[in-house]
Specification:
Elements (H helix, E strand, L loop, with lengths): L15 H56 L10
Length: 81
């Protein structure tokens, strides 16, 4: 933890160095916020992409099952052994 010695702290007009440091802190905070938002956006995109892949895979497997069952039937409608 940082210790603050109040006897050394002298409030006064802001120096240009202090103003620059504050501006840099604000800028870093804004960059961190943007990165968090981008990370959340990427996570949502991954979730949607995974859902799409699963649905496409299920659809493809469903078509294969239909094709297999229609190919395995004999002329009288019974499934081949």
């Amino acid at each position: 933890m940082w210790e603050l010695n109040l006897s050394e702290y002298k409030p006064g007009p802001e120096t240009p160095q202090l103003a620059q440091m504050r501006a840099e802190l604000v800028s870093m905070g804004e960059k961190e916020r943007i990165l968090r938002e981008r990370s959340a956006d990427r996570e949502a995109y991954r979730y949607l992409l995974d859902a799409h892949r699963l649905m496409a895979r299920a659809s493809l497997l469903g078509e294969q099952v239909v094709n297999i069952s229609s190919q395995g039937r004999s002329k009288d409608g019974q499934l081949a052994a």
